[in-house]
Known about the structure:
The complex is a heterodimer. By secondary structure, chain A is α+β, with helices and mostly antiparallel strands. Chain A has two domains: 1-31; 32-216, Immunoglobulin-like (Sandwich). Helices cover 36% and strands 16% of the residues of chain A. Chain A contains seven helices and nine strands; from the N terminus they run αβββββββββαααααα. Chain A has helices at 5-31, 130-142, 145-149, 156-162, 173-180, 208-216, 249-280, and strands spanning 36-37, 39-41, 44-45, 50-55, 64-67, 76-80, 87-92, 100-108, 113-120. Chain A is rod-shaped. An eight-stranded mixed beta barrel of chain B has the order 1-2-3-4-7-8-6-5. Chain B contains two helices and eight strands, in the order H-E-E-E-E-E-E-H-E-E. Chain B folds into two domains: 1-30; 31-206, Sortase, Chain: A (Beta Barrel), CATH 2.40.260.10. The termini of chain B are far apart. At the A-B interface, helix 1, helix 2, helix 3, helix 5 and helix 6 of A face helix 1, strand 2, strand 4, helix 2 and strand 7 of B.
Amino acid sequence: MRRPARLVTGTAAAALAAAALGLSAAAPSAYGEGPASLRITPASAAPGTTVTVDTTACGSGGSATGDASALDAPEFPLVPASLEETLAGSFRVPGGVAPGSYGIGVDCANGEKATGQIEVKSAERAAGSSRDGADASDEAGTEDPAATSEAPAYDFSDLDGLGGDEDTEGLDGLDAEAAGSALVPDAPSEAGRTTPTERPLPSGHTTAPGRDDTGSGQREPSGHRTSAAPTAPSGHVKTGVGGSVGPDTTQIAAGAGVLAAAAVGGAWLLRRRASGTRDAG
Amino acid sequence: MSQKAKGWLLVVVALAGVWLIQSGAGTRLTPPGPAAAQAFTAGPALLPGSPVAEPLRPSAPVRIRIPAIRVDAPMMRLGLGADGSLDVPPAGNTDIVGWYKDGTPPGAKGTAIVAGHVDNAEGPSVFYDLGSLKKGSTVEVDRQDGRTAVFTLDAIEVYESDDFPDQRVYGASAHASLRLITCGGGYSEATGYRGNVVAYAHLTSVR
C-alpha cells in the first residue's frame, strides 16, 4: 500500500531535471551577462532635481560609475550604501533637459552593468502629482496603456535606444520586466520586435531553435502568439510530482489505536475470566 | 454485560481497527482542491465589492505571503521551458515561489504570473494548500521598491492539463492582476497531477 515509488521517482527525476535546467537558465540572466536593474528615485523628476540611483547588480563591496550622459550630466560615483550589497549614488538632472525618458547606466568595477531609465518631467509638470509622472513614464518609456489591455505593440528598438548609448545589448532586469508587463498578454502582432538576439531568452540558454519555436508560436496550443517577442507562458505548469499524495495516515493511526485498545481489552478479559474461574473453583 | 458479549464486542472493535487501517492505506489523500463555489460564476470578473487599487510601477517581487494558508516565502525569477510552459522553482526547496520574470511584476498593470510547487517527491511543498483558498483571501507581495502589493482573490479554479485556458490564465488585464498557479486537479499514478489549480486575484491596496 505504499505510494508508487518508481513512478513518482521517475516523475520527480524529470521534474528535478527540469528545475535544474530552469535554474541554470535563470541564473545567468539574473546575475550574469545581462545588464541588471537600477533603481532610480524619484523615477520621474524635473530638471534641477537630484536623483538617487541604487543597484544590487555589483554585488557586495566594490564601486561603480554612473553614466547619465543621456541627460548631459557628468559621470557620478556609486558607493556602498547602508543596505547590504547595494551601491548608491546620485546626480542632478541638468536644467534645460527636455521632458522624456532617458537611459541611465551603471558600470560596476567588477564589470557588471545595470541600466534603468528616468522620466524627466517638464518644469511646470514638476508640481503635479507623482502619479502623473509615473503614468507619463509608463507611456513614454515602457508601454502604451492601450496596448497593455489589447494588442501590446511593444517596440523593442525604442527601449534599446532608451537604454543608454553604451548599454544597447538589451535591458534585462526590471526594465525588461517593465516592458514585459505589456507582453504577458496575448500578443498577436508584436512585429515591432526587431532585435530578437539582444535579450536573454525567456526559455533559457538551451537552444536557439527551442526559443524560436516558442517565440514563433508554432507550438502554442491556442496558436495566438505570432512573434519572437517575449511570450506569455502557455499550458500546464509542472508544479508537483505527487509526493504528498498518499495513504490517509491519520486513519491508519486511528485504526492502529483501536486495534491496540482491542488487544488490551482482550488481555484484560482473559485475565478476568481466568481469575473468575479460579475464584469459582 | 456477559463475558461472551464482551468477547464479541472486542472482536468487532478489532475488526473495526483492521478496517480503518486497510481503508486508510487504500485511500489516496490529495492536496485540497477548490470547491466549485470558488470558481468564477460567469467568466472572469473582479470580486464584487472589492476595491481596485491603482497599479504600481513595475518592480520585482521579493517575498509573498498568503496568511490564510500560512505561506511566507521568498520569490525567484522564472523563465519559460523549451515547450513554452512556465519553468518551476527547484523542487527540492519547499519554501520558494517563482514569478514569470519576462512578464508583469506583481502590482504593476497587467497579469503577473506566480507559481509554486504543491509537493515534491518527499511530500508537501509551499503551495500545498493553495486549493483551499477562497474568494476574498488576501495575498501580499513585498517588492524591491519597498512597497507591499495586497491582492484579493477573485476566484480559484482548477483545469485539466489538456484543457488549460491560456488566455484566461495568462491573458492581458487592464488591472494589476495576479495568478497563483500550482498542480492539482486530481492525481493519477500513471501521469501525475492531472491539471493545475489557478487562483485569480487583483490589486486591492498598497502599503
